[in-house]
């Protein structure tokens, strides 16, 4: 009689700088890098692990504001090549007496598989040996921050491309909506898109995301008195930074990848984002071997889970 084996399933987590710093091969490669040695010298770190760990913490935290796709999508860390996301159904919660069977409304839950891309999002910078010797630590940190922002920029681009790929008939409301006033996205248009989503059965208590071009935010929305007048301030505008707050559970985000005049509002679970490797900044060897390269990269995939949870407006 064969003995039954019990496997312990570990939590599925993506690669991060912390996990890579435990890999001897990763440390060996970076320990010999002129870039990492420059970090150790500038910031007085005792070894490559300490230098890269603190460097990544600083530059990733500084660039965090640029991670629009991560704020807007259902982000799931994974060590697998794909993630199976459940497609939530619009429905009505019910009461259940103690001991009674739960009532399932509508059809059974189905799923969407989102593949991790066979490529990575990356950005890199190179120095020759002389330039690297003359580069202060603050500049090294600034370059790392810019590289991380560039990686987030690529993630954001793929997210917006996926939204734009939804056919008109599969959008919430059966097509793109029109603004009250052409080329002037306003508070009333936010309500139009929300009404479309509510009409699809999504709860007003759901977390929504509005993604729009910077021109719609600065030229029109931030000039609408419903957002900036002290008698309203319904969106909770931060007067110091100009950041837009929330209206009816809608979080406002801006991205240059959104075509001017186009606005999307969707639920937080409308777009899936499996993250296989979080953004990591480390060194790479130059073929000429007379300098140093630094690269920021992440790997994941983005897919539409619920097209009817995405409302779109054009001509705004």
List its traits.
single chain, 316 residues, alpha+beta, Major capsid protein gp5 fold, five-stranded mixed sheet, 10 helices, 32% helix, 22% strand, globular
Q: What is the strand and helix layout of this fold?
A:
Blueprint: H1 17-20, H2 24-31, H3 34-43, H4 48-63, H5 68-72, E1 74-77, E2 82-87, E3 110-115, E4 121-128, H6 129-133, H7 137-164, H8 187-199, E5 208-212, H9 214-220, H10 225-228, E6 246-247, E7 250-254, E8 263-267, E9 271-284, E10 291-300, E11 303-304, E12 310-313
Parallel strand pairs: 1-9, 5-7
Antiparallel strand pairs: 2-3, 4-10, 5-8, 6-7, 8-12, 9-10, 9-11
Helix pairs in contact: 3-4, 4-7
Any overview of this molecule?
With 316 residues, this protein is of the alpha+beta class. It has two domains: 17-83 and 112-160 and 272-304, Major capsid protein gp5 (Major capsid protein gp5 fold); 168-271 and 305-313, 2-Layer Sandwich (hypothetical protein PF0899 fold), CATH 3.30.2320. Helices cover 32% and strands 22% of the residues. It has ten helices and twelve strands. The strands form three sheets. Strands 1, 4, 9, 10 and 11 form a five-stranded mixed beta sheet that branches. Strands 6-7-5-8-12 form a five-stranded mixed beta sheet. Strands 2-3 form a two-stranded antiparallel sheet. Strand 9 (271-284) and strand 10 (291-300) form a beta hairpin. Helix 3 (34-43) crosses helix 4. It is globular and about 60 Å long. Residues 1-11 have low confidence and may be disordered.
């Amino acid at each position: 009689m064969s003995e039954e084996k019990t496997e312990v399933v570990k939590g599925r987590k993506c690669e991060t700088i912390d996990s890579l710093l435990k890999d001897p091969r990763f440390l060996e490669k970076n320990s010999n890098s002129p870039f990492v040695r420059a970090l150790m010298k500038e910031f007085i770190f005792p070894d490559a692990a300490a230098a890269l760990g603190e460097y990544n913490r600083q530059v990733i935290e500084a660039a965090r504001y640029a991670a629009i796709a991560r704020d807007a999508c259902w982000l799931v860390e994974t060590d697998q090549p794909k993630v199976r996301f459940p497609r939530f159904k619009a429905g009505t919660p019910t009461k259940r007496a103690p001991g009674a069977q739960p009532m399932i409304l509508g059809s059974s839950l189905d799923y969407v598989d989102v593949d991790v891309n066979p490529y990575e999002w990356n950005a890199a910078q190179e120095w020759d040996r002389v330039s690297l010797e003359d580069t202060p630590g603050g500049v090294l940190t600034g370059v790392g921050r810019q590289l991380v922002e560039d990686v987030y920029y690529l993630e954001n681009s793929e997210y917006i491309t996926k939204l734009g790929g939804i056919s008109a008939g599969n959008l919430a409301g059966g097509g793109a909506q029109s603004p009250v006033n052409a080329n002037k996205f306003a508070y009333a248009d936010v309500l139009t898109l929300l009404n479309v989503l509510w009409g699809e059965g999504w709860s007003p208590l759901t977390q929504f995301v509005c993604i729009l071009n910077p021109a719609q935010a600065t030229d029109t929305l931030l000039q609408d008195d419903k957002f900036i007048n002290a008698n309203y301030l319904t969106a909770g505008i931060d007067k110091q930074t100009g950041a837009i707050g929330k209206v009816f559970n809608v979080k406002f985000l801006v991205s240059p990848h959104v075509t001017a005049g186009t606005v999307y509002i969707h639920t937080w679970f409308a777009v899936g984002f499996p993250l296989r490797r979080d953004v990591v900044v480390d060194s790479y060897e130059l073929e000429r071997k007379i300098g140093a390269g630094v690269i920021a990269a992440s790997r994941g995939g983005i897919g539409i889970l619920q097209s009817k949870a995405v409302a779109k407006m054009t001509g705004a």
